[in-house]
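INFO  loader      accepted 1 record
INFO  loader      residues=78
INFO  predictor   begin
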Amino acid sequence: MVEITCDVCDKKRPDPGKRLGNDAWILGYDIEMEKANSLQRSLRFLDRWDDSRVLELGAIHLCSEKCKDDYIRKARAA
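INFO  predictor   done
INFO  writer      dumping tokens
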């Protein structure tokens, strides 16, 4: 079994049988592509959670909109 934690606050995502109705986790991707003279970064967020994609390369897991906003703010500063 895979344990999912928020990439901002480290909150653990409850098991599917124990989740509440307002449990709005966000799945997205933070991909970096390095080229000869540049580094390109792309942030993408899915419109719904997809358990089959949580382990894909570059996947990010966020427990709330607040953590999503914090993640975006920190990514812009980098």
